[in-house]
Amino acid sequence: SSYHKVLEENRMLYNQVQDLKGTIRVYCRVRPFLQGQTNGQSTVDYIGENGNIMILNPLKQGKDARKVFSFNKVFGPTVSQGVSYSMELEQIYVDTQPLIRSVLDGFNVCIFAYGQTGSGKTYTMSGPDLTTEQTWGVNYRALRDLFQISKERADVVKYEVGVQMIEIYNEQLNGLNVPDASWVPVASTQDVLDLMRTGQKNRAVGATALNERSSRSHSILTIHVYGKELVSGSILKGCLHLVDLAGSERVDKSEAVGDRLKEAQHINKSLSALGDVISALAQKSAHIPYRNSKLTQVLQDSLGGQAKTLMFVHISPEVNSIGETVSALKFAERVASIELGAARSNK
Ligand code: ADP
């Protein structure tokens, strides 16, 4: 019966999810050289098996020029967004999908995009073009899956889905889809696309300033799932935060003044607060410093405990980004190190 099918599917998912529970995973994604750019030297020397990436720093000599960083996975510049049937490419969404499914089983999940401006954060989360499904990012694939699976389970669990869009700019929280940042019920991917368009309009800036502004604010799309099991009456509550972080680049202190300096200080503060929270969780510290930034306060319920965290760290391959590349990879390695150490020794 469909009931048993769903139970069986749940059991399988549960096993996959057990692997991920309470752990912090970090995936590294390398952006390709952009069209129209002459393909200069890449700072990515080589991408190895098992999540290793070797960076070549042309400004350094000898053995200091090469450094290896280790993550759960590394996706090279030719990896595509979704599930394709070509075996040679490892696809971004294949490795994200089990987390999305677990939200419908009542887990809280956070997915972050981290990296300097222009490294591909928005490409991963939203995709370059909403009109072509092939290049959809994690956000829309996740929503499509959530609606699809909830439909498949309709005989067993009745689900309600709600969406909330917020932006954190200069440590201030703005609701984008609705002013009070409450969540709005949605029934289809189309509903969400419509809401996102409204959200974009509600950003308090014109179109030209939009890119600039979005690189200096954190944007969080939250999907709340509320499910009621029809036979037992028990309630499942899960939520998925999809977070496109502000650009991680350092602003030259001697150059930034006024608003720009203030923005930079807020960004630095909140990104380091995020790093501190995640690494405290990974080290199972007694005190987790959630209160140090708006970002970590907003996400508190979904970081730690039974929640699952995935961070995509993005890097640009150009030589002139080497400083930002190394600092992004260091940040991400710090966030991942403890759990990865444990995972390796189990192999
Ligand atoms: P960010 O959000 O980090 O500022 P974007 O996602 O806007 O960066 O990416 C910068 C540019 O690079 C965009 O033109 C985007 O389409 C392109 N880009 C990023 N990642 C990829 C990728 N994996 N494949 C092809 N183009 C990409």
Please give the structural blueprint.
Blueprint: H1 2-20, E1 24-30, E2 44-47, E3 52-56, E4 66-70, E5 73-75, H2 97-103, E6 108-114, H3 121-125, H4 138-152, E7 157-169, E8 172-175, E9 184-186, H5 189-202, H6 207-215, E10 218-229, E11 235-244, H7 258-282, H8 294-298, E12 308-315, H9 322-346
Parallel strand pairs: 1-5, 1-12, 6-11, 6-12
Antiparallel strand pairs: 2-3, 3-4, 7-8, 7-9, 7-10, 10-11
Helix pairs in contact: 1-2, 2-4, 7-9
Protein name: Kinesin KP1
Domain Kinesin motor: 23-338
Family: Belongs to the TRAFAC class myosin-kinesin ATPase superfamily. Kinesin family. KIN-14 subfamily.
Structure description:
The chain is of the alpha/beta class and 347 residues long. It has one domain (2-346): Kinesin motor domain (Kinesin), CATH 3.40.850.10. It is built from nine helices and twelve strands. The strands form two sheets. Strands 1, 5, 6, 7, 8, 9, 10, 11 and 12 form a nine-stranded mixed sheet that branches. The chain has a three-stranded antiparallel sheet with strand order 2-3-4. A hairpin with a 5-residue loop joins strand 10 (218-229) and strand 11 (235-244). Helix 1 packs across helix 2 and helix 7 runs parallel beside helix 9 (322-346). The radius of gyration is 20 Å and the shape is globular. The structure holds adenosine-5'-diphosphate. The site of adenosine-5'-diphosphate has 14 residues, from helix 3. Residues 23-338 form the Kinesin motor domain. Belongs to the TRAFAC class myosin-kinesin ATPase superfamily. Kinesin family. KIN-14 subfamily. It comes from Hibiscus sabdariffa. ATP binds at residues 115-122. This is Kinesin KP1.
